[in-house]
Recover the amino acids of this structure.
């Protein structure tokens, strides 16, 4: 079969771009995925106990973008879900991100009231303040609060998750879990918050199991595609390929680590099943200061599944080693971004290859942002 496009990777980026090409342009697309399943890290499956689990850790969908919500709603119905996270701090469980509810649960009433009034006066109610910004405050009470949250909530969690202190990574990373000046204890405040009713994998099947799309699973793309990095020529199954390749894997791997490896963080997951209806009171509980794992997620809270037993997962952050584990999070700092720019400059020489997604762009994308970027790339670079 002749193909017009080859897409490397069947996660959000690859599935979205492949579906648009096949549906809108009616072109033939070959999707190559090295794992045994579609969906990338959002893949979910029913475990041996009948519980729907997320194999690569919890994925909670949320977005402020109506066009992303409307697009994905073509492929799934939704179950409304507002994610709430608790953190175990000095033996207490308080809402995360740290907010006014956390404040009043942690400190004596008079102190909590005084700090709340100062926060609202200094900033603005319902605003989100990065911890490194709060540390700049000179007021004694606000400095006390900043030091407490930094040491009890952020510091050890960041060291476990990223292998470095908060000051050593890009501020966009630490700002993802700000201090929230509100009594809203939801983890996200986006307009659209829900889970695919039948799971992510079923949604991906609706996107990819269609005419004009062929899937190759359990396949290293280099067994199928060869790119001459000097001339830009492409070969598929040993034959010259005149179409376009959309690559969603690690950009340094595509160029055979020419300038060195881009650092990522990886995760190890430990699943456990319990013969009890629920293990914990909310979807996720963070452990910033205790244990080697960062958090425990109980899937039934997320999926609204009914069962007399339950499955949880503990997450253990670890270093990424190519060929050994999976790259999850790019480690963003000035040095690594400079290395990425070298690869992006090299990528500009390949006119028929589009680099898209978290790994290819070395970007910490949420799921909705990946979909939005894929839709934009389709509109501007493919269907223009």
């Amino acid at each position: 079969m002749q193909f017009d496009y080859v897409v490397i990777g069947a996660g959000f980026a690859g599935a979205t771009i492949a579906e648009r090409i096949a549906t809108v342009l009616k072109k033939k697309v070959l999707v190559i995925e090295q794992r045994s399943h579609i969906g990338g890290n959002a893949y979910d499956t029913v475990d041996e106990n009948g519980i729907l689990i997320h194999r690569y850790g919890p994925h909670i969908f949320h977005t402020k973008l109506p066009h992303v919500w409307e697009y994905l709603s073509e492929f799934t119905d939704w179950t409304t879900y507002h994610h709430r996270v608790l953190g175990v701090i000095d033996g207490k469980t308080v809402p995360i991100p740290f907010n006014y509810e956390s404040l009043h649960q942690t400190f004596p009433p008079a102190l909590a009231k005084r700090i709340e009034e100062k926060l609202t006066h200094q900033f603005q109610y319902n605003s989100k303040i990065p911890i490194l910004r709060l540390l700049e405050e000179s007021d004694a009470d606000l400095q006390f609060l900043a030091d407490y949250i930094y040491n009890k909530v952020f510091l050890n969690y960041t060291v476990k998750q990223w292998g470095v202190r908060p000051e050593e990574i890009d501020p966009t990373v630490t700002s993802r879990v700000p201090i929230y000046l509100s009594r809203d204890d939801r983890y996200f405040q986006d307009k659209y918050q829900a889970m695919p009713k039948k799971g992510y994998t079923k949604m991906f099947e609706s996107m990819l199991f269609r005419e004009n799309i062929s899937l190759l699973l359990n396949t290293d793309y280099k067994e199928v595609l060869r790119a001459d990095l000097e001339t830009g020529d492409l070969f598929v199954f040993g034959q010259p390929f005149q179409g376009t390749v959309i690559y969603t894997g690690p950009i340094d791997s595509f160029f055979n680590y020419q300038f060195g490896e881009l650092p990522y963080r990886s995760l190890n997951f430990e699943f456990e099943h319990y013969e009890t209806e629920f293990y914990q009171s909310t979807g996720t509980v963070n452990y910033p200061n205790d244990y080697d794992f960062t958090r425990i997620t109980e899937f039934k809270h997320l999926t609204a599944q009914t069962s007399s037993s339950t499955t949880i997962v503990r997450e253990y952050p670890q270093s990424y080693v190519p060929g050994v584990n999976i790259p999850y999070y790019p480690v963003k700092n000035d040095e690594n971004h400079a290395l990425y720019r070298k690869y992006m400059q090299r990528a500009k020489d390949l006119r028929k290859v589009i680099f898209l997604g978290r790994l290819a762009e070395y970007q910490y994308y949420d799921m909705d942002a990946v979909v939005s970027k894929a839709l934009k790339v389709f509109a501007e670079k493919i269907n223009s």
In short: The CA atoms of residues 95 and 336 lie 33 Å apart. The radius of gyration is 22 Å.
